[in-house]
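Dear colleague,

Thank you for sharing your sequence with our group. We've completed the structure prediction you requested, and as agreed, I am returning the results in plain text so they can be pasted directly into your records. Please verify that the sequence below matches your submission; if there's any discrepancy, let me know and we will rerun it promptly.
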Amino acid sequence: MAQQGVRKRPDALTVLTLLVAEAPPARIESLLAEAACGGAPEAETAALERAVRLGLDICAQRRGRQQREAGLSALLDTARDLLVPDTLDGVLKAVTRRSRLLLGADMAYVSFPGPEDGLSYIRASDGHTSTLNVGLQLTGGSGLGHAAVANLAPVWTPDYLDDNRIQHSTDIDEVVRTEGLRAIMAVPLSYGPHPFGALYVADRNVRHYTPEEISTANLLGELAGLAVQRTLVLDDAKATVQTLREEHGRTTESLRELSEHRRIHHELIERALTDCELHGLAEAVSRNLGGALRIHAADGTVLTTTGRMPETGPAAAEVHAAKRPVHTADGLWAAPVTAGGEILGTLVFRPEDLPAAGIDELLHLAAQAVAVQLLRTGDTTVAQGRAHGELLEDLLTSAQRPPQQLEERARRLGINLATPHVVVVVRPEARAVGRACALATGLAQRLNGLRVGHGGNAVLLLPGTDAGATARAVLNELAPLLSEPVTVAAAGPVADAASVFHCHQEALRCLEAMIALDTAGRSASPRELGFLGVLLADNRDVRSFVDSVIGPVLEYDRQRFTDLGRTLDAYFETGASPTRAAQKLHVHPNTVARRLERIAELLGPDWQDPGQALEVQLALRLSRVRDLLIKDGPSAGVGQGT
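Please find the predicted structure tokens below.
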């Protein structure tokens, strides 16, 4: 029996007891020393030694398991930390801090491409001692990060600056040297199979990273990649929500404005249909729009005014040419009043304060209501404008209608067709037809003439005796106000209703000739086109053409019994040679020279210019043919036989 107080020597059971009690490895290892001191036999000592080794292995395994559990717990904590920030900077700050603490590193930083140039930059760091790292551009193809992203696998080195396996860059090496870094590991930041950046952990001492540390860093990279992608998706979602919120606000405001415009339009149309007083409608417009209003008739007459308005306002022609409400430099708004393309008048509005939103649309609605009122009440200016257009349309298309009837209608409208009038045809470019017609209407009203749209042209019947001058005046009036070229042709004058139809046809032919001659954007009359005008003229007035070109020469010959006309013929027939002309006429060359000087005095110094010379030759030929026909005609034969 063992003596009381004698301590039992340790054995395998003692090792198991200590393992159950989770004793530290040093306590288990001390059992061998205790057994040696207790004089244990060799066989017992060998058995205890085997048990101690097994116990130490179990402790190491338990310690490794605990470390893995701690690592997993730390990764879970890291994942929770990465879910908290909702901004990219917050996520990157959490990534670098957790990475440095989890791996026991001196420094951690993240790089990925910028939003515009695609180059990689250091976006965040933790544990740095200088300011050279954040914002640093990483040269493409160099450093550990490029290799990690390219291979989609961790890359590490125990001593960066002395590792010749790495493709070095001067800028990166300078930062590494400034920070005093030695060991560096880079793992890819990825979302699925698509890497977009790199996570770095670094130490200021030489360090050989264990497989567990590399695996942990790689898991951190994946978590960081997911967190970054989540943040980017959240940013996109926030931007989309903000855009939708703004669009919803705009839509709500538009619907509110539309509802208000609908209410105003309904009120104004209702008043226009039930109230016979234009002034009442004007007051309703002023009240709803908040300002003073003046309504003009088509001829510029003020029909009614509400509130204080300036004496002058925008030109009606410009307003109607714009076909929409216009805002002038003096703070006024003006809107055309039209119906079916017919000009009825103009609204001029002066807002009291800042104009309401959609003021142009409100003015357009007000102009519609005023047009309804004017058409319903039969305003005299509206009826007169319609009557003017209908009269000119009949003059242009009804050549067989009794002239007395047309002239009587004109007299009732204050137009005397017995006085000289000129027909003007205005052809603008297709995009400016409406604006040109509106401007032409204002011009006709101002000059007490007629205007109508006919065949895609604006046709005017204006008082005057000189067709060319009238065409130029109309062009000078319209061209500065139009952004597109406008071509103007005029014919006349005429002094009766029946001639307007034929005069219009002559002006049209003149216009077509101008277009064919590539002179669009100009003005002309048949007389100004010279002999071409004779061909275009409806009455083929050859006598007038001959008189206008060589009349002074022919008159001089008749009065003084000279041969200037025959001298001109000879001069041109001999190729403009005075010497050969003298031979043909059997006179001295000096005689021809004196006659040519006299012709220059009669026809002007430019009579030999190519254009005028051509007309002189044509006039001479027409005069000679005409004289021959008269001389050889039937009347000459009858006279000789009597």
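Summary note from our side: The first helix runs from residue 12 to 20.

Kind regards,
the structure core
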